[in-house]
Amino acid sequence: MSEFITIGEPLTLFGAEGESETDKEIKDINHFEKFLAGAEVNVCVGVSRLGHSVEYITKLGEDPFGDFIKESLDRENIGTSYISSTGDYFTGYQLKSKVSTGDPKIFYFRRNSAASHFTVDDLQKLDLEDVKHIHLSGIFPALSKTSRDAFYKLIELAEEKNIRTTFDPNLRPQLWSSKEEMVNTINDIAFRSDIVMPGINEGLILMGSDDPEKIADFYLNKGVKLVIVKLGAKGAFVKSKERMYTVPGFKVEKVVDTVGAGDGFAVGVITGLLEGLDLKDAVRRGNAIGAMAVMSPGDNDGYPTREKLEKFLKGEA
Ligand code: KDG
C-alpha cells in the first residue's frame, strides 16, 4: 500500500492558451488548453513524481472528464483504489484566464459534482496500515455536508492511528455558505492537524492578522505542533515550540501562472518529511517547487522529477 494519501476533488482545467488570450475576461477567451487540476490532485502529482507511493481518494462521474482524470492519474502513477464513481452526477471542471501580472481568474463548474456526493460509506475499504502522511486541504469539506462528514472521518482515523497530517486551509469562499462557516470549520480542522500551512492572506481571514508570527502563535496556542506560513516570493516562516525562522524563497525569472504554487510548496514539505530531511531543507524544497510551479501554465505541470529538482536546487536550471 501507499505511504501518502489525500482526499479531494479533481477538476479538468481549461486554461487560456496563447499570448493573444492574455488579460482577457473568461467569456472572451477562444483558445483553451486542457490540464489535470484540483489542489489535492496537484499534491499527489508532485509527491508521486518524486518517487513516493501515493493514493488519492475521490468520486468521479462516469463521463469524459472522469475518464480523462482517471487516465491522467494512472499516467502519474497515482493509486486509484479508493476512487468511487457515479453515473448520477458529473465530474467538475474549471476555466482559468491568463494574466500578465497577478493571479488569473477562475470559474468553477462543480456545484453538485460527483465529488460533492462522496460519503463516509465511500471510505469503507480504506486501509491506512502503511500510510505515513495524510495531507488535508480545506476544499473538500466545503463541497457538501456528506463530503465534510467523510473528511472528518479521515481526520478521526488519522488521529486514531497517529498518522502525521499537514493541513492547507486553501480558502475558497465561493464554495462556503458564509464566511463564518468557512472560518469556524477551517480553524476547527487546523486545530486537529499536526502541521498547519496557511498563506499570509489566509491568516488575515482566519485569525485577523497578517503578521506571520501572530498567525503561527494562534495555531500553536491551540495545540498545533508546527506552523509554516507561506510568504509568497519571500519564502516561508516556520514556528514551533522549539524553533522559529524564515526560509527564503527562490528567484523566479518569469511568472507564467501563480496557481499551484501552494500545492507545490506542500509537495516539498511532505516529501522532505517522508525522506527524513531536516525541517529547514524540507521547507527549502517546498519553496523550490513553489517557484518551479509558477513558471508553467498548468497547476502541476511545473512540478519536478527528482533530477529536475536537484538541478534547480543547485541553481543549474
Ligand atoms: O490550488 C490549485 C487549485 O486552486 C485548483 O487546481 C482548483 O482545486 C481547485 C480549487 O478548488 O480551487
Account of the protein in words:
The structure is a single chain. This protein has 10 helices and 13 strands. With 317 residues, the chain is α/β, with parallel strands linked by helices. Strand 11 and strand 12 form a beta hairpin. It has one domain: UDP-N-acetylmuramoyl-L-alanine:D-glutamate ligase, CATH 3.40.1190.20. The structure holds 2-keto-3-deoxygluconate. The site of 2-keto-3-deoxygluconate (KDG) has 12 residues, from helix 1 and helix 8.
Fold topology:
Elements: E1 4-7, E2 11-16, E3 32-37, H1 39-49, E4 54-61, H2 64-75, E5 83-86, E6 93-96, E7 106-109, E8 133-137, H3 140-143, H4 145-161, E9 164-168, H5 179-191, E10 195-196, H6 200-207, H7 212-220, E11 226-230, E12 235-240, E13 244-248, H8 261-274, H9 279-293, H10 306-313
Helix pairs in contact: 1-8, 8-9
Bound molecules: 2-keto-3-deoxygluconate.
Family: Belongs to the carbohydrate kinase PfkB family.
Keywords: ATP-binding, Kinase, Nucleotide-binding, Transferase
EC number: 2.7.1.45
Coarse shape: globular
The CA-CA distance between the termini, in Å, is 34 Å
Query: What's the architecture in CATH terms?
Result: 3-Layer(aba) Sandwich
Give the beta-strand count.
13
Q: What share of residues is helical?
A: 25-40%
Strand content: 15-25%
Q: Which class in CATH terms? A: Alpha Beta
Give start-end ranges of low-pLDDT stretches: none
Number of helices: 10
Name of the CATH homologous superfamily: Ribokinase
What would you call the structural class? Answer: alpha/beta
- Widest β-sheet, arrangement of strands: 5-4-1-8-9-10-11-12-13
> Main sheet, how many strands, which sense, barrel?
9 strands, mixed
Mean pLDDT across the residues is 97
- What ligands can be seen in this structure? 2-keto-3-deoxygluconate
Along the chain, the helix and strand elements come as EEEHEHEEEEHHEHEHHEEEHHH
Q: How many domains in all?
A: 1
Examine the coordinates and then state which fold CATH places here, giving the name of the CATH topology: UDP-N-acetylmuramoyl-L-alanine:D-glutamate ligase
Radius of gyration: 18 Å
